[in-house]
Amino acid sequence: MSHMSTLKLTAETESLINNRAVGYSLEAPFYASQEIFDLDVEAIFAKHWLFSTTEAEIAEPGDFVTVDIGPHSVIILRDDDEEVRAFRNVCRHRGSRLLDSPCGSVGNLVCPYHQWTYRTDGSLIHAESQPPSFERDRFGLKPVHVRTVGGLVFICLGEEPPEDFDEVAGNIEPYLTPYDLRHAKVAHQVDLVEEGNWKLVMENNRECHHCDSAHPELITAYFPLFGYTADDVTPRLRPVFERYQAAAEDLGAACAASQFPRDTWYEPDTRITGFRVSHLPLDGEGSSFGPDGKPVCAKLMGSITQARFGDLSMHMQPNSWFHLLSDHAIVFRVLPVSPDKSIVRTTWLVHSDAVEGVDYDVDSLTSVWRTTNDQDRVLVAGTQCGVANPGYEPGPYSLVEDDVEAFANWYIGRLHKYVTS
Ligand code: 3BY
Ligand code: FES
Ligand code: FE
Fold first, then answer.
1. Distances (CA, A) of 219 to 61, 80, 125, 237, 324
2. Measured between alpha carbons, how far is residue 59 from residues 96, 186, 210, 262 in Å?
3. Would you say the CB of residue 142 lies under 6 angstroms from ligand 2?
4. What ipTM was reported for this prediction?
5. Of 165, 348, 391, 396, which has fewest CB within 10 angstroms of its CB?
6. SS3 30
7. Structural domains for the chain
8. So what's the pLDDT on residue 263?
């Protein structure tokens, strides 16, 4: 990845990046400084592959979503040939923003300023009052790199995207295929504004050390053992761990019966596109994220045939995580807004034939994770306040916070690479 940094970093920021204490949470400026926020946008969000939207949200030709990241705005749409494309949301005439809505559907893309008109493939088809010498084909919309994997849409704003994405796509696609997200239906979507730096949102997602106390609703379905090994399990969690082991055996058998891949890739810190996939059992009835692991939709996803099929989760750097269940999927995307503000978008997907009010109702489908997200929102806001307190100093990660550490190591590693190359 080559780049031209437009930021001139202060010596203090360079020193923070170079001297980060491994095993400890990040220094306060990583969560609070405008300079580091701008660096995050430039070095992380504008250079890496980002999960952006689902194909289900742009199911028909002309359907689009816009994604705003710092000063960048991207249009992601399905063109008339059903290809997914992404463009800079900037008119090639005098630069007006082209599409202002977060989502919608267009025939062509018409600039609101002087009506330059682009086809869904980005080509310019109409520009009024230009001289005869005007070369229309020089002024198509600027493309942004875009890739779809198993119904998930990734974009990269960098000129030369990380080359490891083919391998990552090859690794994760077999896990996603049985759920057929490409043909799923969006049942619900929520944008939650969080009063916290985007990294606090991600770090909070990367551990379940807080689950047992913070998420009473979630843990009736979800084993709060994320990051634990048999050695780390506290006496309090021992019975949970024993239930988990029994459920894991059942899930292994169910996966084998459906020839579903069961291995786990776990490289969230070392790859450029760090990620982790795991397939874990659920507690209670073991089917879904309803109370006590109960199903929340009567139609199963894709080609899944068994309700008790656990939770196929995927955690990706820098900004996403996913939970795929037998009866629905939940997709999470974090975008940075300012040093102390982020937006978490949660999208619930169901089988395209699932009928609201018959197979599912939105309230029960979304209840546990709406509640969980809100509990996490409070924890993140509290941490943002704490790290901005002059009394804050980085503290040590526990044995069950490996993935928080992996996220922090990945992040610092990517910044270091960016500032030194
Ligand atoms: O959404 C998640 O996957 C994380 C991991 C465990 C805690 N939290 C629920
Ligand atoms: Fe878009 Fe003029 S700026 S048509
Ligand atoms: Fe949480």
1. 40, 45, 55, 12, 17
2. 27, 10, 37, 30
3. no
4. 0.94
5. 391
6. helix
7. 51-149 (2.102.10.10), 179-420 (3.90.380.10)
8. 82
| Ligand 2 close to Cβ of residue 124 (< 6 A) | no
CA distance 34 to 41: 11
> Among the atoms of ligand 2, which is closest to the Cα of residue 96?
3
| Residue 2: band (very low, low, confident or very high) from pLDDT cuts 50, 70, 90 | very low
Residue nearest to atom 8 of ligand 1 (CA): 205
Residue nearest to atom 4 of ligand 2 (CA): 114
pLDDT at 1 over 50: no
Contact 218, 189 (CB under 8 A): no
For residue 93, what are the contacts with CB-CB under 8 A and spacing of at least 6?
A: 111, 113, 114, 116, 127, 139
Separation in Å, CA 189 to CA 222, 370, 381, 406, 412: 21, 10, 22, 29, 31
Please name which ligand lies nearest the alpha carbon of 215: 3
Supply the angle between the helices 198-205 and 402-420 in degrees, to the nearest 10.
140
Distance (angstroms) between ligand 1 centre and the Cα of 207 equals 6
In tens, the pLDDT along 182-223 reads 999 999 999 999 999 999 999 999 999 999 999 999 999 999
314: tokens are 């995927």
With a 6 Å cutoff on the Cβ, whether 49 touches ligand 1 is no
Ligand 3 centroid to 78 CA: how many Å?
34
Average pLDDT of the chain to the nearest whole number? 96
For ligand 1, atom 2: residue with the closest CA:
205
Q: What is the tens place of the pLDDT at every residue in 213-257? A: 999 999 999 999 999 999 989 999 999 999 999 999 999 999 999
Q: pTM (2 decimals)?
A: 0.97
**Residues with a beta carbon under 5 angstroms from ion ligand 3:** 376
- Tokens 């073991």 belong to 286
